Amino acid sequence: MAKEGADMTEETEYMIDKNVSKEAENVESSGDAKEMRAVVLAGFGGLNKLRVTKKAMPEPQDGEVKIRVKACGLNFLDLMVRQGTVDNPPKPPLVPGFECSGIVESVGENTTGFEIGDRVMAFVNYNAWAEVVCTPVDFVYKMPEEMTFAEAAAFSLNFVAAYMMLFEVANLREGMSVLVHSAGGGVGQAVAQLCSTVPNVTVFGIASCFKHAAIRDSVTHLFDRNVDYIQEVKKISPEGVDIVLDCLCGENTAKGLTLLRPLGTYILYGASNMVTGETKSFFSFAKSWWQVEKVNPIKLYEENKVIAGFSLLNLLFKHGKCSLVKSVMDKLLCLYDQKKIKPVVDSLWALEEVKEAMQRIHDRGNIGKLILDVEKSPTPLMASDSTETSEAGEEEEEPEGDNDSKERMPFIH
Amino acid sequence: MAKEGADMTEETEYMIDKNVSKEAENVESSGDAKEMRAVVLAGFGGLNKLRVTKKAMPEPQDGEVKIRVKACGLNFLDLMVRQGTVDNPPKPPLVPGFECSGIVESVGENTTGFEIGDRVMAFVNYNAWAEVVCTPVDFVYKMPEEMTFAEAAAFSLNFVAAYMMLFEVANLREGMSVLVHSAGGGVGQAVAQLCSTVPNVTVFGIASCFKHAAIRDSVTHLFDRNVDYIQEVKKISPEGVDIVLDCLCGENTAKGLTLLRPLGTYILYGASNMVTGETKSFFSFAKSWWQVEKVNPIKLYEENKVIAGFSLLNLLFKHGKCSLVKSVMDKLLCLYDQKKIKPVVDSLWALEEVKEAMQRIHDRGNIGKLILDVEKSPTPLMASDSTETSEAGEEEEEPEGDNDSKERMPFIH
């Protein structure tokens, strides 16, 4: 673990390198000029599988853009990647991260539309959490002038996902109602803002109590996730709601479905329940993820209901929908220019602070998006430091709590 | 069964009355002036459970319209009602039928918007197959001047269902593709016409081979239901289609889902497979209906797919969406006035010919809608007549074929 002090970065890397896997060592054998810092996941498991290390500098291939990264988005999905609970993850060691912002450093052959020095945001199929990343031009978008790098890194995934769920999968129109779980999270805040661009939309938000003061103005009604929100929503809207956005999965799916009014759409866009403390090992994660309750189409028929799944990353990297996403991004940037939407940044973290940042998401502590700020130095630890690294195996208890006593003070934006 | 000849109607009724159930007899005890002809389903089962008999004339209640019926729509759902395979059917004896057209004969207290003599079409929660019907004013719509009663009876259910599935549940837009099963049926033809109102929509139709010549122009590509249409569609559109409309259910649901492209919507709007000859008894119908393959939401998430159920009758009579349906009807009548859509009537049948009409739907013989024409006299039988009535029990073989030898020649429109 990192030590206090201004020059801790080098020391952190040195210490972490001792634990680095063989594959990663080979990559690091290249010369200094061709190296970059990156967050590496050495194997699936707990926070202890993450370290900052040096990796070979990537070079842009045909049709790719090379980006000097300024900021990266940290998503719940990254926690699932860490635990290996996503579908077909690459073999570790791997560099996590699906989105970043930065400056174009060079472009590959047959790459048009971008020039060196362009400020851009981009989707990346892994590898975003590094100083430099290369990604196909189809996944790169120019940033508006007034947008900061942190905002840009907070923008792409959350707003594109929120927009596509509301307007492409469901068909949000005037007078409708939307229920969003994790209303304080990155997607939740994007959903709330996008709903406010349509007249007379009611937003029911679910969030932990301690977030209520901060996000009360962003939604119409706010409920504690620990109360029986089904009953609370029904008190206000006995017929139910038109759209349920559920990133939780598991037992809440059936509950959410009962809240749908006829012709309503239930959208499952993640499975963050799978990364809570209740199911702790990799094995039980995977098990509960795959054993989610199935839906009877006949029930949908009788109740006039719609159930949808939405995975933006699959849409981009497996389903080839980048031109559709590009058209959505254009609409979103238009709304940003009109100041109708603005990404909410929870906090900025150095690459070396990725574990604490992940812990904050795990604990549902964030309001808006967590950003890895590549140029940021780690913030001094708050409490007594420890260099111990938990070596918990994949089948053992989660080591999520192992740094409770040395929580950092993030830079709250 | 009916005899040949012009005055057969009275004789038919007389003969059928011998078999009528006790409840129906009680109803018929009222005076002649207060009676009307109606199709009565004496109990759930085969065609032999249907008869034309006299029933007490209904009178409009508060908020209701009394309609002198001219034509009624016959739908696949009516076959399911006959067999008792719908959810919570009323206790027989009952008068089937969910839609009709006719002339307003009187209105109940607090019924505004309609006057005696208005030409109307209406949804009815059962009881449509009669000379007179009363239904709440919310389910009644004025007919365009140039629309015939047969067209009106063919219009409501099919076009409202097709419109809502394409534009409310899915979000049909320019350039999309639609797969429709039973392309030759009433809903299928409505779907094809509505798709043609949107630029550049590709319609893949599935229909029995013998219908192909008649409906080829209504769709872009036409496939025989007996070939491997999944492969055929994929040859033309490797990525799949945007919308699958499935009235078949059962084993085809999984097949249809594989045809969906990312962000595509699969809509289950009926279950006509449940009324084919393969599963013959009431019990096995019900069993297969309820044992349809369930859908894993995680699979929807990974594949970015949407599955929806759509039941217009539940929407109207259980879910209270009559004002939404009214707004859809307004749009449809606008398209009708612009001559962009026009209901396809397969054939007209007298009330006494309801069994033969049902058999025609059962055999998938129709192109467009079957209409019960209340003022029509039964057409002379084509072959040797028989007064035998099959008394097949609910658990016995379907008596669907029992009138093969005396098929009528319907009035093909």
From TrEMBL, chains A, B:
Keyword Oxidoreductase in record: yes
InterPro entries: ADH-like_N, ER, GroES-like_sf, NAD(P)-bd_dom_sf, Quin_OxRdtase/zeta-crystal_CS, SV-ATPase_mito-regulator
Regions of compositional bias (Acidic residues) in chain numbering: 391-402
Coiled coil, from the record: none
Alphabetized CDD domains for the sequence: MDR3
Alphabetically ordered keywords of this record: Oxidoreductase
Boundaries of every Enoyl reductase (ER) domain copy: 45-372
Ranges annotated as biased composition (Basic and acidic residues): 403-413
UniProt GO MF annotations: oxidoreductase activity; zinc ion binding
Keyword Amino-acid biosynthesis recorded: no
Region feature Disordered, mapped onto this chain: 377-413
Pfam families in the record: ADH_N (PF08240), ADH_zinc_N_2 (PF13602)
SUPFAM superfamilies cross-referenced by the UniProt entry: GroES-like (SSF50129), NAD(P)-binding Rossmann-fold domains (SSF51735)
Entry's family note: Belongs to the zinc-containing alcohol dehydrogenase family. Quinone oxidoreductase subfamily.
Protein name: Vesicle amine transport 1-like
